[in-house]
Amino acid sequence: MRKSLQKSKVFCPACQVGNYHLKLVTYYVRHKNNLITVPDFPSWVCDVCSRVEYDEKAVRQLNSLLASSTDVRVVEEARKKPKSMQSSLINSRLHKPRNNQ
């Protein structure tokens, strides 16, 4: 494992003996049907039992990136559809009869 980047004064809740050290590890997450690996992900690792706690701020940033990339994929897939299909969809929505109540 790589050299510690930073030492914490927090004791490990698992073994209650070791201290957490900030290290870069590979993070694995399943997003929809894809396995995503992130190298050099900041994590707190116990120096005694090697328990890993991923950095909360880094996890939040990754989750926001994954959420925004999903939105981008939907837009890109819509752009790949043939123009005739897009225009027919738009026309069907524009000329849809309205219910007058």
Ordered list of secondary-structure elements with their pairings:
Layout: E1 6-11, E2 19-31, E3 34-46, E4 52-54, H1 56-80, H2 83-94
Overall description:
The chain has 101 residues and is α+β, with helices and mostly antiparallel strands. The chain has a single domain, classed as Roll (Ubiquitin-like (UB roll)). Helices cover 37% and strands 35% of the residues. The protein has two helices and four strands, in the order ββββαα. The protein has helices spanning 56-80, 83-94; strands at 6-11, 19-31, 34-46, 52-54. A four-stranded antiparallel sheet has the order 1-2-3-4.
What is this entry, summarized?
This protein is α+β, with helices and mostly antiparallel strands. The chain contains two helices and four strands, in the order E-E-E-E-H-H.
Overview features:
Ubiquitin-like (UB roll), alpha+beta, elongated, four-stranded antiparallel sheet, single chain
Helix fraction? 25-40%
Average pLDDT over all residues? 75
* CATH class categorisation: Alpha Beta
Q: What's the order of the H and E elements?
A: EEEEHH
Radius of gyration: 24 Å
Terminal CA distance? 69 Å
Described by the principal axes of the CA atoms, the overall outline is elongated
Q: Report the CATH topology name.
A: Ubiquitin-like (UB roll)
How many individual domains? 1
Which secondary-structure class do the elements indicate? alpha+beta
